[in-house]
Design a protein that fits this description.
The chain contains 18 helices and 10 strands. It is of the alpha+beta class. InterPro entries: Diguanylate_Cyclase, GGDEF_dom, MASE1, Nucleotide_cyclase, PAC, PAS, PAS-assoc_C, PAS-like_dom_sf.
């Protein structure tokens, strides 16, 4: 039942309300002031029907058209028109609104916004075309067609649609979308402005002495500027109502025009002038406000993005040398963002002294060649801290393709640079630890020379090189004479000192290309590179002599001597065989009296 009741309201109630409104405004227009041949000064009924058609789906149009036709016929009959003419005028009145609706809907569903200049232009064009067709049909229906009747009808209908339709559509939009209630101050201001327009219009149209028609126009401009499209249409509607009443009583500045018909036409064109000035101005102002709001929103979003990314923008004007900074650039420098940007020279001084020439050269080259630059630099803040920044600049050109300014971006990359520095430091530390670990794994902890593992690795490497390249290599196995008795007589600490002294003497007696390594206990191995057997013997003898003639490790400790066995690489030999041959020669040196050397057979 509820759904059926709602459907009946849509089918019956709204057409009935439209018919009543149409009849009331049509009758009021016809009785307040008359134009040519019973034609009203303004026909708001057409604006009411056009608004109803634009706000409703096509399936409800027939009911509205019938209701409007009946109301128009009744109003014309009540005004004294013969029924054939009343019927003809009623058909024409309904047709003009239907034609305007078709013209506005024929490309896409109507989405009129009187805050959009293109929509205002489209609306005015449609109403003028519909009014022209309507005036043509009305002239054909009229018993005595004339150009005056055509022009009067055209202006009457056009004014009715242009003034009333925007008011109705704007009000309907407010009701349907229920926007947030404006502040009380704005509501009071709007009421005062519209009241002022009404009072000013009454004062102008209530007298016939002075032609003060410009004064209501000032009120319309004030309402347009402060209240937008709604203020423009409502203020013109107020002037139309007050002016129509005054004209009907023979008052107002329009009475200066000779003849009632001319006075009515003059008033109609006056209203059209007001609309032609107010509606485009309101649309342009509304567009400006939207653009300013969008610019403000985009600016806030840009500032948020710049703050989040630590990116700011700047501009250097070549003509006057002025600088423009965004808020984030001020924050990067630790300066008050509400202050003025420093000059170009002062901006350069904010960079690190080492980076100032690079920055200056980049800007100068861009101004000369137009080539953009991209560089890293440092800035000095007032608190003494240094920030790393990435600076990018591009040329801004005029219509003659001349560089007039430099537009750039600046990003605070301190955190990134510090992360890279920390990463490099960590990498260097890791590499150092890796090298240290390798060194520890290849170094004898007591003597600091190569351990057994390192010595054998070097020996194998030299043997491979000798096998493939023919470069000779020899080794010498060295053993400290009577080392056990040193430990027994002087203790293990003195024995360790002896080992350290022998290792140092061997290292000093050898070349940089040779190697000495501790094989185990008091036994050492010398890897002698690139020498003949005779040269290997000379080197081994030099080592033996250095040990035998060295000062005692400590007072009271006997002189240290060592025995050596030398073996030279020959094709087909390996590390194990070479070491075994050197060991055999060492054994022979030990049994030959010690402190001597022997060469493997």
């Amino acid at each position: 039942m509820a759904a059926r009741s709602t459907r009946i309201d849509h089918i019956v109630l709204w057409p009935v309300l439209l018919g009543l409104a149409y009849f009331c405004f049509a009758s009021l227009s016809l009785h307040l002031t008359r134009g040519v041949d019973g034609i009203a000064t303004i026909w708001p009924a057409s604006g009411i029907l056009l608004s109803a058609l634009l706000l409703s789906p096509p399936k409800r149009w027939p009911a509205f058209m019938v209701a409007a036709g009946v109301a128009s016929f009744t109003a014309n009959m009540d005004a004294g028109a013969a029924w054939p003419r009343a019927l003809g005028f009623s058909i024409v009145n309904v047709s003009e609104s239907v034609l305007a609706t078709y013209l506005l809907r024929r490309q896409r569903p109507i989405d009129l916004s009187f805050a959009d200049p293109s929509s205002v232009g489209r609306f005015c064009l449609a109403t003028i075309i519909a009014s022209t067709v309507s005036a043509t049909l009305a002239s054909m229906v009229s018993p005595a067609p004339s150009g005056t009747i055509f022009l009067s009808w055209l202006t009457t209908v056009a004014l009715g649609m242009m003034i009333v339709t925007p008011v109705v559509l704007t009000g309907a939009n407010i009701v349907m979308h229920r926007p947030a209630t404006p502040p009380m101050r704005m509501m009071i201001e709007g009421g005062l402005i519209l009241t002022g327009v009404a009072v000013l219009s009454i004062g102008v149209f209530a007298q016939s002495t002075y032609p003060l028609l410009t004064l209501p126009m000032l009120g319309v401009l004030a309402a347009t500027y402060r209240l937008g499209p709604h203020g423009a249409t409502v203020s013109v509607l107020l002037i139309a109502i007050i002016g129509s009443v005054a004209t009907g009583y023979g008052l107002g500045p329009v009475t200066f025009v000779d003849g009632v018909e001319r006075a009515v036409l003059f008033f109609q064109f006056y209203l059209l002038t007001l609309l032609g000035s107010a509606l485009p101005l309101a649309a342009l102002l509304a567009t400006r406000e939207r653009m300013m709001a969008r610019i403000g929103r985009d600016k806030r979003l840009l500032e948020m993005a710049e703050r989040a990314a630590h990116v700011g923008h700047w501009r250097f004007a070549a003509g006057d040398g002025s600088m423009l900074w965004s808020a984030e650039v001020f924050r990067m420098h630790g300066l008050d963002e509400d202050g003025e940007a420093p000059s170009y020279q002062d901006t350069l001084r904010l960079f690190h002294p080492d980076d100032q020439p690079c920055m200056s050269n980049a800007v100068n080259q861009l101004m000369t060649t137009g080539e953009p630059f991209d560089l890293d630099a440092r800035i000095m803040r007032r608190d003494g801290t240094v920030r790393d920044v990435h600076v990018r600049g591009e040329a801004e050109r005029d219509r003659h393709d001349q560089t007039v300014a430099v537009f750039g971006m600046m990003q605070d990359v301190t955190a990134r640079v510090e992360s890279v520095r920390a990463l490099h430091a960590a990498r260097d530390a890791a590499e150092h630890e890796a090298r240290r670990a390798v060194t520890l794994s290849e170094t004898d902890q007591l003597t600091g020379i190569a351990n057994r593992r390192k010595a054998l690795a070097v020996l194998n490497e030299r043997i491979i090189r000798a096998s493939t390249g023919g470069q000779p290599v020899a080794i010498a196995m060295l053993d400290i004479d009577h080392f056990k008795s040193i430990n027994d007589d002087y203790g293990h600490a003195m024995g360790d000192a002896v080992l350290v002294r022998v290792a140092e003497l061997c290292r000093l007696a050898l070349r940089e290309t040779d190697l000495v390594g501790r094989i185990g206990g008091e036994e050492f191995m010398l890897v002698i590179d690139g020498v003949t057997p005779e040269g290997a013997m000379v080197t081994a003898e030099r080592v033996r002599h250095a040990i035998a003639t060295a000062d005692p490790v400590a007072p009271g400790v006997r002189t240290i001597t060592a025995s050596l066995g030398v073996a030279t690489f020959h094709p087909g030999a390996n590390a194990r065989g070479l070491m075994q041959a050197a060991d055999d020669a060492l054994y022979a040196a030990k049994h030959g009296g010690r402190n001597t050397l022997r060469v493997a057979a």
